[in-house]
Design a protein that fits this description.
Layout (H helix, E strand, L loop, with lengths): L5 H12 L4 H31 L2 E11 L7 E6 L1 E4 H15 L3 H10 L2 H4 L7 H13 L4 H8 L3 H4 E6 L2 E3 L1 H4 E6 L2 E6 L27 E6 L5 E4 L6 E6 L12 E6 L3 E14 L8 H4 L1 E2 L14 H17 L20 H11 L14 H5 L10 E2 L2 E12 L8 E8 L3 E9 L3 H15 L4 H29 L1
Parallel strand pairs: 12-16, 12-17, 13-14
Antiparallel strand pairs: 1-17, 2-7, 2-10, 3-9, 4-5, 4-8, 6-7, 8-16, 10-11, 12-15
Helix pairs in contact: 2-14, 3-4, 11-12
């Protein structure tokens, strides 16, 4: 017997149904129409859900080796922002040039600390402006002045170990700008304009355990304190992404306060997220993340959400006060904030530390919060590939105080493994085709072969009818 296709069998059944009772044919047609309508509804619903959430993030591995994850950047920042000894040396030098007494110049130099925390007292305006005029007349830049008075890393750090090997601290720690001022940083690979030397562009990696991590001993010279931003002594440890500018308010930094005569163990737990390239085929509103090459910030390097937030805050600061604080390595000699701008910086500093949510719908509520927080013109999406570092700190007093006012810090991975997440598309095109084909096959018995046969059948019928009409017209003429 000749083998007939699915569509021919369907036509045979349909032809047979014409010989049935009219009521049965009506019932058969109604059932078939209902099934078609329901099938279309199912397909449209599935497609809408796919468009709303086209990507999914899943845990790929909970045993991803930490030695394949970049070690975080570590910054050691003294709470003392101005070294008294270095300020005194500078005061004597400036006194000879300005015909002021060293005591007067020391009082002036104390004002420069206000460029760290934007602290401002209205009764000091005249003195701030006077000292700024002196600096301008001597052609002294604010960032150079701040760098001259900060405690150098050679004095702050007394000994260092990396992967259980003693190293010279100056070979692994460099004095660089963070949101907290000049700090001694380790494994910070972002190139910024304040750099005057070459740095390693690739973050270091290491294994788990205290012996494979970073150790640093800090010398807290309490007699050298001259200006502090908080009422405490010691150093602040920053744990951050090594390719990002260290900034607390942008959300990409963990801050740990340590005290003199203490041992501090900082356990790092990394979590890595990566994305397949197919995710980039969908709009930003759908995937809610950016790949490194899709947008660049003012730092001129690869994109990160932290750098995007910093850029947004910098633009707001410049719009409000027409200057950029020297703490942000985007300023230059023509636009850096001076002592004359402290009053303006103090007026809006609370605004720049609060970021208004981008996804909050506009309305009559939270009007005060909208005015008193930072809002970015371009939404700062998260990165499609990033590593987040969770830090857990434990501090213990040093009982055997052989060194006075020393702070010992250990930074290390707590476990051999970490979590790796993958952002992928929910369905690839062949999976969507398979799902739709399954729905049509279950409810109405359609398949790709059936659609081809149906199209071929009606195409042939239409062509035969057109050809017959043309032949009739030719014969009649």
């Amino acid at each position: 017997m000749e083998n007939k296709g699915l569509f021919h069998r369907y036509v045979h059944i349909s032809t047979f149904s014409h010989h049935l009772e009219p009521n049965f044919r009506l019932l058969w047609s109604c059932i078939y129409i209902i099934l078609i309508v329901y099938t279309i509804y199912m397909v449209v619903t599935l497609w809408d859900k796919f468009l709303i959430h086209p990507t999914v993030t899943t845990l790929v591995s909970s045993t991803f080796p930490v030695n394949q994850v970049p070690f975080p950047g570590v910054a050691v920042c003294s709470i003392n922002k101005i070294s008294k000894k270095r300020a005194q040396n500078l005061a004597f030098a400036l006194a000879n040039q300005t015909k002021k007494s060293p005591e007067e110049v020391m009082a002036f130099l104390h004002f420069t600390g206000q460029l760290y925390d934007f602290d401002f007292q209205p009764d000091t305006v005249s003195k701030l402006l006077l000292f700024q005029n002196i600096l301008d007349s001597l052609n002294i830049k604010i960032d150079d002045l701040a760098r001259e008075m900060v405690t150098p890393c050679e004095d702050l750090l007394s000994s260092c170990l990396w992967r259980n090997m003693e190293v010279n601290c100056s070979t692994i720690f460099y004095q660089r700008l963070t949101y907290d001022g000049f700090c001694c940083v380790f494994n910070y690979v972002k190139f910024t304009q304040e750099l005057t030397y070459e740095i390693d562009q690739k973050p270091v990696t290491t294994d788990a355990g205290v012996e494979n991590g970073l150790f640093v001993a800090v010398n807290n010279n309490l007699q050298d304190y001259f200006y502090t931003t908080i009422s405490a002594v010691g150093v602040i440890i920053h744990i951050f992404v090594p390719t990002d500018y260290p900034d607390k308010s942008s959300g990409g930094l963990t801050e740990i306060l340590t005290h003199p005569n203490s041992e501090n163990f900082v356990e790092i737990v990394p979590t890595t997220l990566t994305s397949v390239r197919d995710v980039a085929d969908y709009s930003l509103e759908k995937r809610q993340c950016l790949f490194d090459h899709e947008r660049y910030t003012s730092f001129g390097t690869t994109y990160s959400q932290s750098d995007c937030n910093i850029e947004c805050r910098t633009m707001s600061i410049y719009a409000m006060c027409q200057c950029i604080p020297f703490l942000i390595p985007l300023s230059n000699s023509s636009n850096v904030c001076t002592l004359a701008d402290v009053a303006c910086l103090n007026r809006y500093k609370e605004k720049w530390t609060s970021l208004f949510p981008d996804d909050l719908e506009p309305g009559p509520y939270l009007q005060k919060e909208r005015q008193d927080s930072l809002r970015c013109d371009n939404k700062c999406y998260s990165s499609c590939a990033e590593t987040v570092y969770e830090a857990h700190a434990n501090s213990f007093p040093i009982l055997n105080k052989t060194d006075n006012n020393v702070t010992r810090i250990f930074v290390y991975y707590s476990g051999r493994f970490s979590k790796l997440y993958l952002q992928d598309v929910v369905y690839y095109w062949f999976e969507v085709l398979s799902n739709f084909g399954g729905i049509f096959g279950i409810f109405v018995g359609w398949s790709l072969i059936f659609i081809i046969q149906l199209s071929a059948y009606y195409t042939r019928k239409i062509l035969e009818k057109v050809l017959k009409t043309v032949m009739t017209l030719i014969l009649n003429t």
